[in-house]
Design brief:
The chain is mostly helical. The chain has 22 helices and 4 strands.
């Protein structure tokens, strides 16, 4: 989203001990605060844009990069002289004075806060006869509140669910049991799925591309259902959504959304297809965080995709791949797990040897060099060898412009296969076959659908898209340890997953301190 609004500073932070009564009673200096702002539908739209705006702060990578480095798909990477934080994620080490995960936590709660501000003020708006617009804004805001809650919950386990803006007496709220958080998430997603219209914004040039749709809400509901029920061993989603209902939602998204698979997997990714790139507003994109390069080097804006530079080849452009920091080097075990003829292998990873790219890891100071980097999301150069973002007047670190795909239609199909596996195995097989048929461009590589095969297909299809680690959590600690543990004989790649963490990441130390003992550190991270 390109419109910004800074409305909420006064409401979010009030140090009452430093304020006189006169100050609190005076009119605010700024024209726009929550007390006097929400009057028209236009005001409400600006408030909604402020909620969407938080999504772009995920451009630094956050859960995507952290979880990929912690999974079995990647190592830490980056430069030999760089800080050790990324190896710590790779090796499940903890350094409290680095306040690890601070941005993940603060961005999630900033999004929750802004969503709650809007939701609490919708009734102040003069909607006239357009009550449908009010319902739409409520549905979008509640979807985003659910997204931000789920972003925190899947990283940290028990969190503090908030369905309202907190008062000063609530600044030290305790974390809640998972069923409390997920009941709120499920309620919000169900409201969005039931109240948004049937629009599909994936048409080329659609002005609403990037906004929430019914189909995104149905797919996200299935995702949270599968994560919660698998991770916590439950039969339904916190008593709010049953398996039959989650299955009906995902089947609706498969059959009626108008979304489909792009014919060639490689054409989904700019660095894999170049001139054949289908564009980000393609039929497969159910929901994505949208970016652009309009910031032109302005670090105060969040228009650009800032995680792309982290995974690009270290030490300078090479071939058509633009330069970056060499983070999250790809585990050869993942690359080797693709069958012959699977088009996703060449489309997902830069293979320096096979592509005849002379990458000298010593000269480029690449840490944990494996011979493979991310092709998905890698920025590119033009024919003259200049990074496209710089040729367009931007900064290569902050102005990359590729959207971050949160839900693709292939993911919808695989979730549908998983949810239909017991109740309708024929339908599950058909959904599963569609993904494999596209990968091999034929029907001769089909396998019998099973939970094991679906989970493997998710790893291959959705590699480097921030889902693998959380798919492992819901399979349980023995499966997680078996997948992540790594001992190749080269100590720089040795990884031992610590099951005492239960897969949860450490909370930011600053939040533990601020809670005055209400919040304690996650197990295994003391």
């Amino acid at each position: 989203m390109k419109t910004y609004i800074k409305l909420f500073a006064l409401s979010s932070l009030l140090t009452l001990g430093a304020c006189s009564q006169d100050f609190l009673e005076n009119e605010p200096y700024t024209d726009k605060v929550t007390e006097n702002f929400y009057k028209t539908p236009s005001d409400a739209f600006e408030g909604l844009v402020a909620v969407y705006d938080v999504l772009q702060r995920e451009a630094y990578g956050g859960p995507l990069l952290i979880s990929e480095q912690a999974s079995d798909d990647c190592f830490g990477g980056y430069g030999i002289a760089d800080a050790q934080t990324d190896i710590e994620w790779d090796r499940f080490l903890y350094v409290s004075d680095k306040d690890m995960n601070k941005d993940v936590w603060s961005n999630a709660y900033l999004g929750i806060y802004r969503a709650n501000i809007l939701l609490e003020n919708l009734n102040k708006v003069n909607w006239g006869s357009d009550t449908a617009l009010k319902t739409r804004y409520e549905a979008e805001a509640r979807f985003l509140r659910a997204h931000f809650h789920f972003t925190a919950a899947k990283m940290f386990g028990d969190i503090i669910p908030l369905d309202h803006t907190v008062t000063t007496s609530e600044f030290e709220l305790p974390r809640q049991a998972p069923e409390v958080t997920y009941a709120l998430i499920a309620s919000d997603l169900r409201f969005a799925a039931d109240n948004l219209g049937p629009e599909n914004y994936s048409q080329a040039g659609n002005a609403n591309y990037g906004r929430i749709t019914k189909w995104a809400a149905e797919a996200y509901l299935a995702r949270t259902f599968l994560f919660y029920t698998g991770t916590y061993g439950k039969a339904d989603l916190a008593g709010v959504v049953s398996k039959a209902e989650a299955t009906a939602y995902i089947n609706d998204a498969v059959n009626n959304s108008g979304h489909g698979l792009v014919a060639d997997f490689a054409n989904l990714w700019l660095a894999a297809s170049f001139e054949n790139f289908v564009g980000e507003d393609n039929t497969e994109m159910v929901w994505a965080v949208r970016f652009n390069g309009s910031g032109k080097g302005n670090w105060d804006l969040h228009e650009g995709n800032r995680f792309q530079v982290n995974i690009a080849p270290r030490g300078g452009s090479i071939g058509r791949y633009a330069t970056g920091w060499g983070g999250a080097t790809v585990n050869p075990k993942l690359v080797d797990s693709y069958e012959a003829g699977d088009t996703r292998k060449a489309a997902s990873f830069i293979d320096y040897a096979s592509e005849n790219l002379n990458f000298d890891p010593q000269a480029r100071e690449q840490r944990q060099y494996t011979g493979y980097s991310w092709k998905k999301y890698c920025p590119i150069t033009n024919a003259a060898g200049t990074a496209v973002v710089e040729a367009n007047g931007g900064n290569f670190q902050i102005d990359n412009y590729q959207d971050y795909a949160i839900i693709r239609f292939s993911d919808v199909l695989l979730m549908a296969a998983e949810l239909n596996l017991q109740s309708n195995p024929a339908l599950a097989q058909a959904d599963y076959d569609r993904v494999r048929d596209r990968a091999f461009k034929n029907t001769t590589h089909r396998k019998t659908v099973s939970l094991e095969n679906i989970m493997k297909e998710r790893q291959l299809e959705l590699a480097l898209e921030g889902l693998r680690y959380f798919d492992l959590i819901r399979q349980g600690m023995p499966a997680m340890k078996a997948a992540i543990d790594n001992n190749t004989g080269d100590s720089q790649f040795n990884v031992t997953f610590r099951t005492e963490t239960q897969g949860w990441f450490p909370l930011p130390q600053s939040q533990i301190i601020l809670s005055n003992g209400t919040i304690t550190q996650n197990s295994g991270w003391n």
